[in-house]
Write a structure and sequence with these properties.
The chain has about 300 residues and is of the alpha/beta class. The protein has helices at about 20-25, 75-80, 95-110, 110-120, 145-155, 185-190, 210-215, 235-240, 285-300, and strands spanning about 5-10, 35, 45-50, 60-65, 85, 140, 160-165, 175-180, 195, 220-225, 245-250, 270. Helices cover about 30% and strands about 15% of the residues. Helix 3 crosses helix 5 (about 145-155). It is globular, with a radius of gyration of 21 Å.
Length: about 300
């Protein structure tokens, strides 16, 4: 059954990514009422576009998540109540790919060191052999879906050899070699960069543990732009402190915001970004396109795109 939508709310939780009014204004020509709402106005809507989950959403017909990851939503409850859940997979691939490329370039050209030195007004050139170039390096992208394929496309254009890990191990366009998930430790063993783009599921929680870090080369870098709990943060810190890894670039964490007491903040070879790898000025426009398409599909009696539940 298609949801019957008369009023669509843009929940104010999206404010941390883009102004909710921008999205609401861009959708003002839809044949449904669109309004920015807070928690006290959820019951006035039939559908909502949101970053966060609220239990009151269980009374609606349709929820659209502005992220691809939907681990915050209670699938069983949504199915029981007959609430449609869609996500925003497919819009972040290039954006996140460029962010990952910036991490790799920072490590290769030591840009993170220079920025840190600037804060101290310190003129300090790197050692002659500290810098390197990306062509000829290998990046193992763990998760070859839309996000991972976008990362592979951007890095491939920089001369990086791309390998991947997926459940089946079947070949994927843009990847020189693909390993099955059960061969993760073999897959990461020879990579200069290991890039996590996985969603959070019971199967992926703490998938990256001490054993996986032990299998990585001690001059390799970890990048996580998937979900924080996919990485066992304590095991990662142990590996970094023991020089078992060269460094890490992390956009997602087990606890967000990253607690002030986390050792990751002060590690010289760790780049911390605040879960913003996909942030661009066009974010709300891309979300608007997905919402618009589904409203049109519902009107035509067609199935929703990007349906999760």
């Amino acid at each position: 059954m298609q949801p019957d939508i008369e009023r669509l709310g843009v929940h104010d939780s999206v404010e941390s990514v883009f102004p909710p009014s921008e999205l609401a204004d861009s959708l003002s020509d839809l044949p449904v009422e669109v309004a920015v709402i807070g928690d006290d106005e959820i019951d006035s809507c039939d559908a909502v576009v949101t970053l966060e989950h609220r239990d009151a959403f269980l009374e609606l017909a349709w929820i659209h998540s502005i992220q691809a990851g939907v681990d915050r939503f209670p699938f069983d409850d949504l199915e029981e109540r007959g609430v449609l859940l869609t996500n925003s997979t497919g819009i972040h691939d290039r954006w996140v790919g460029e962010t990952v490329a910036s991490y790799l370039l920072a490590f290769a050209r030591r840009l993170h060191e220079h920025v840190a030195n600037q804060q101290e007004r310190r003129w300090e050139q790197p050692a002659w052999d500290d810098g390197f170039t990306l062509p000829g390096t290998t990046a193992c992208v763990v998760g070859t879906g839309t996000l991972g394929s976008g990362v592979a496309e951007v890095l491939g254009s920089l001369g990086v050899r791309i390998t991947g890990v997926r459940r089946s191990g079947d070949p994927v366009e843009g990847f020189a070699e693909v390993y099955a998930s059960e061969d993760l430790e073999d897959a990461v063993a020879d990579a200069d960069f290991v890039i996590v783009t996985l969603p959070l599921t019971e199967a992926t929680r703490h998938l990256f543990d001490a054993d996986v870090f032990g299998a990585m080369a001690d001059d390799a870098y970890l990048v996580n732009v998937g979900r924080g709990p996919v990485v066992d943060e304590d095991a990662l810190i142990d590996a970094l402190e023991a020089d078992g890894l060269a460094g890490a670039a992390l956009d997602v964490f087990e606890t967000e915001p990253l607690p002030a007491e986390s050792p990751l903040w002060e590690m010289d070879e760790v780049i911390v970004t605040p879960h913003c790898a996909a942030f661009t000025e066009d974010y709300y426009r891309a979300i608007g396109d997905l919402v618009r398409e589904n409203v049109e599909r519902f009107a035509e009696g067609e199935a929703a795109t990007n349906r999760v539940v």
